[in-house]
Amino acid sequence: MPTNRVSTRPFEGQKPGTSGLRKKVSEFQQPGYLENFVQAIFNALPPGGGRALVVGGDGRYYNREAIQTIIRMAAANGCQRMWIGRGGLLSTPAVSCLIRKFGAEGGIVLSASHNPGGPEGDFGIKFNGTNGGPATEAVTAAIYQASLQLDHYLTCDSEDVSLDRLGDSMVEDMVVSVIDPVADYAELMESLFDFPALSQLLQHKRFRICFDAMHAVTGPYAKAILEERLGAPEGTVINAEPLPDFGGGHPDPNLVHAAELVARMNGDEPFAFGAASDGDGDRNMVLGTGFYINPCDSLAVLTANLHLLPGYRDGVAGVARSMPTSRAVDRVAKAKGIPCYETPTGWKFFGNLMDDGRITLCGEESFGTGSSHVREKDGLWAVLCWLNIIASRQQPARAIVRSHWQRFGRDYFSRHDYEEVDAVAANQLMDQLRGSLTSLPGQRFGEHVVASADDFSYTDPVDGSVSEGQGLRVLFEDDARIVFRLSGTGTAGATLRVYYDRPQRDPARLELDTQRTLASLFAAADEMAGISRHTGRSTPDVIT
Ligand code: G16
């Protein structure tokens, strides 16, 4: 079959953000747009690279069409072997699992994560490397450079591959295997957790749970593992069918968007535990009865208890958190005498630390938690961790968190997002604040006096690479902290994220209202950065 060389010209703006290239579906549907980015991936790989790839997506609108394009282009670019999840579905952690299991040279994930889908929604694509993790900064920079130099892409005229039938077929010289998207991932989970104990817990009459798959990719995984393998009652997983538009919802597992889960948890049925996952299955939100567990606390609690789980009996080598994530986990690491790394936002920064054996566990405030079993954050894994800890300690989630706070103290944490802000105004805010950083120490904002302020820069301890400009952080003398950064995952205007955290050690002050506890910091942030002046907004759009 002949290879077609199709002339093209670079598109502007194919620079990957925090996690791959995310744009409106309509932008991806422009002739040559997806093709250019895929060709840029192949051009950026080392010679002979990309011969064995795992490909899958979260099932959002345009997933199937994109996969057929990628199949033809991969064959024309010399790929020999490709594994695709049936129906074009693979969760992001499952892609990572399969790359590692098959020894593939990488993978292509089609997802815009928690962003809405459908013809008017978002689409995304990212490349994962041989370790199963998101491409490093050096690789994404190479992909971007390649995208700027394109004058052609390679494809072929093959028929569409049937994505719904398991089995192998040939496209040029490439063997394409359509595989069960769940089986290998489920096997990995079984090797990490105490499945008999989980079965007993989930079949207990007085321990009902609710898992909201939000009509996204985790549905089939959660049904297969929680209901079919572990015997949780049918209906435990709600919104289990992946839909191209996520049923019109916003597949972001937080208290606002996982509204059905929250309503059920607060309803008449006595649920002991609730959880939700996002579009591509890498994020998680966990809830106890009448109790929201902040992702920063979740990371700290998992770090303190991971040794209880069969796959982690050897202990935790070290932990890492993204810089804006609260410092709750730092104290657990200190108590355990293990290292704790502070990385920039983005899962790609954890990969080297895991590959080098420095960390076992990592997480972010953005509802991401994961371990070295794969190189992505993993929503369902985090839920199984919690359930296994509940089973092992024989305590409800709420009691586990409360006793954690009693032992380690609590870090009140909240993130305020100002979405679709005018990009020029958002950059002005950041530039002005950056310009004032050196003069901030010593200044008082209400009850808080600034101790230090900087623009976070990270030197990877493994390869020595330096990532600058990763967020403005302001630390106060009372140990409270504010972080300002612009999101790297939005697709319209700019999203300003302001992160607040405030440690509390007084055992009598561990159950206060978070927003009220942090209110004086909100005022300080507005005074120091002029949030309302620059954005024209008096309140954030999303509070987590
Ligand atoms: C991605 C990254 C995460 C990051 C999150 C938010 O997650 O993998 O590391 O924390 O975006 O990034 P930002 O604050 O730049 O928008 P996901 O789940 O969207 O792939």
Automatic annotation (TrEMBL):
CC annotations in GO: cytosol
InterPro entries, per the entry: A-D-PHexomutase_a/b/a-I (IPR005844), A-D-PHexomutase_a/b/a-I/II/III (IPR016055), A-D-PHexomutase_a/b/a-II (IPR005845), A-D-PHexomutase_a/b/a-III (IPR005846), A-D-PHexomutase_C_sf (IPR036900), A-D-PHexomutase_CS (IPR016066), Alpha-D-phosphohexomutase_SF (IPR005841), PGM (IPR045244)
Membrane found in the keyword field: no
EC number: 5.4.2.2
Domain Alpha-D-phosphohexomutase alpha/beta/alpha intervals: 14-148, 184-287, 299-408
Needed co-factor(s): Mg(2+)
Protein name, UniProt field: phosphoglucomutase (alpha-D-glucose-1,6-bisphosphate-dependent)
Catalytic activity: alpha-D-glucose 1-phosphate = alpha-D-glucose 6-phosphate
Domain of life: Bacteria
Gene Ontology BP term (one): glucose metabolic process
GO molecular function: magnesium ion binding; phosphoglucomutase activity
NCBIfam families: PRK07564.1-1
Lineage: Bacteria, Pseudomonadati, Pseudomonadota, Gammaproteobacteria, Cellvibrionales
Family, as annotated: Belongs to the phosphohexose mutase family.
Record's keyword terms, sorted: Carbohydrate metabolism, Glucose metabolism, Isomerase, Magnesium, Metal-binding, Phosphoprotein
Region (Disordered): 1-22
